[in-house]
Design brief:
The chain is α+β, with helices and mostly antiparallel strands. Helix content is 47%, strand content 18%. It contains five helices and five strands; from the N terminus they run αββαβββααα. The protein has helices spanning 2-8, 27-40, 86-99, 109-127, 133-154, and strands spanning 10-15, 18-23, 60-62, 65-71, 78-84. Strands 3-4-5 form a three-stranded antiparallel β-sheet. It has a two-stranded antiparallel ribbon with strand order 1-2. Strand 4 and strand 5 form a beta hairpin. The protein is elongated, with a radius of gyration of 22 Å.
Length: 161
């Protein structure tokens, strides 16, 4: 496989049955080679998920991350910008919201906060790789806001609006 990568100037990055091929051109040739190998293994590519992207011009998603090539404001050099995808951000926010909604008011506060911390810790553990300081900061602010809303609803006294 290494010889093929060197010959085609391509790099295969895979996780389970998902993979990305990075190449310096020859995209159609690389794709044709992958299809040949897959056919020899009696496997097929999912045409709905298979696409060719110029990462310098367009971002792509892989394993919950959005990956693209950006230019640094400070140095002017290009670097890979790796952030949690919009879908991943939407999912963690939906989970935090479901943990802090009115249905959980009957649970002890410590249990709810523990579940929120557990969800956030797992998400941050997975997505801390890359350039995600802004996303982590936004998530922290969202969690603080949701916990405040939860506590306001939980400790509201009767007769108050």
């Amino acid at each position: 496989m290494k010889k093929v990568q060197e010959r085609l100037e391509a790099r295969l990055i895979r996780y389970a049955d998902d993979f990305v091929v990075l190449s310096k051109g020859n995209a159609e040739r690389v794709l044709k080679g992958i299809k040949t190998v897959m056919n020899n293994l009696e496997l097929s590519l999912n045409d709905a998920k298979t696409k060719t992207v110029d990462a310098r011009k367009e971002d792509f998603n892989f394993l919950g991350f959005t990956i693209g090539i950006k230019r640094s404001i400070r140095t002017g050099r290009e670097f890979p910008l790796i952030r949690p995808s919009k879908k991943a951000m939407k999912q963690i926010k939906a989970e935090i919201k479901s943990l802090t909604n009115r249905r959980t008011l009957a649970l002890p506060t410590g249990v709810v906060i523990g579940r929120v911390n557990e969800a956030a810790r797992g998400w941050v553990g997975y997505f801390r790789y890359g350039n995600c300081c802004k996303d982590m900061s936004r998530l922290k602010g969202y969690i603080e806001e949701r916990v405040q809303i939860y506590l306001r609803h939980k400790h509201r006294k009767k007769g108050q609006t």
